[in-house]
Write a structure and sequence with these properties.
Strand order of the largest sheet: 1-2
Number of strands: 4
Helix content: 25-40%
Largest sheet: 2 strands, antiparallel
Number of helices: 2
Strand content: 15-25%
Structural class: alpha+beta
Length: 91
């Protein structure tokens, strides 16, 4: 009975899974496949790095390069959007 299970069920399943993994490797086009040590692709429109400032209205952090700014009492204040800039009240 155990021999039947191994020979007729388990062994064919293992052979099928092995063959499928080999074929998948051979015929993969490389889309979405990264090798170890390879950096993920970057979006050209996203600026990385730089200083972050906290939006005083909503509390999110925004890059100084992409922020909406407003000068208040001689100090530059950074906002995440025009809506937050318009909501800001000077105390």
């Amino acid at each position: 009975m155990i021999r039947y299970l191994i020979v007729e069920i388990v062994l064919p399943i293992l052979v099928f899974l092995f063959a499928r993994s080999i074929l998948k490797t051979l015929f993969s086009s490389g889309r979405g496949v990264r090798t170890r040590g390879q950096a993920p692709p970057r979006d050209a429109g996203i600026v990385s790095g730089g200083e972050l400032k906290k939006d005083p209205v909503c509390g999110t952090y925004v890059s100084t390069a992409l922020s909406v700014t407003r000068t208040v009492n001689g100090e530059v204040v950074h906002f995440c959007s025009k809506e937050c800039r318009d909501k800001y009240h000077v105390a």
